[in-house]
Amino acid sequence: MDLRTVLTPDTVNLHLQGSTKEEIIDEMLDILVKAGKVSDRDAARECVLDRERKMSTGMKHGIAIPHGKTDTVTDLVACIGISDKPVEFETLDQEPCRIFIMTLSPVSKTGPHLQFLAEVSLLFKSPDKRAQILETQDKAEVIKILTE
């Protein structure tokens, strides 16, 4: 999967303001709605929150990947948000998060969703990439860091 086909500067927010898991999820959904990627915000929100209730998508190293499967999108969509302050997200290592990647995909398409999650989780094993993403103030640069 080529992340450059999914991520664009209009799906990146370098200054999320939320201080709770739900506020971050809402801001991430707002990015996708504003970019014209989601047809029904409320339905998309419910699918992401439902996934969170089953098991938190807070990973390790300050990263969370909230996601869900919903028919409010026709193809896999994604966005990235960076928080200025750490947010508690029930992570595997109990550390708060600053890097958030949300993805939504149609219920009928499993492959791209799993491929995206696998690729993104591999990218963040690099401490250098995480540090670069937190330091940059350029949306296009975030995408470049992720796709190199």
Structural overview:
With 148 residues, this protein is of the alpha/beta class. The mean pLDDT is 92. The protein is globular, with a radius of gyration of 14 Å. Helix 1 runs antiparallel to helix 2. It is built from 5 helices and 5 strands; from the N terminus they run E-H-H-E-E-E-E-H-H-H. Strands 1, 2, 3, 4 and 5 form a 5-stranded mixed β-sheet that branches.
Layout of secondary structure:
Layout: E1 12-16, H1 21-34, H2 41-54, E2 63-64, E3 67-69, E4 77-87, E5 97-105, H3 111-123, H4 127-135, H5 139-147
Parallel strand pairs: 1-4, 2-5, 3-5
Antiparallel strand pairs: 4-5
Short description:
This protein is an alpha/beta fold. The chain is built from 5 helices and 5 strands, in the order βααββββααα. The mean pLDDT is about 90.
Radius of gyration: 14 Å
Total beta strands: 5
What is the string of helix and strand elements? Answer: EHHEEEEHHH
Q: Which structural class fits the helix and strand makeup? A: alpha/beta
The rounded distance between the terminal residues' Cα atoms is 13 Å
Strand content of the residues, in percent?
A: 15-25%
Q: Which descriptors apply to this entry?
A:
148 residues, alpha/beta, five-stranded mixed beta sheet, 5 helices, 20% strand, globular
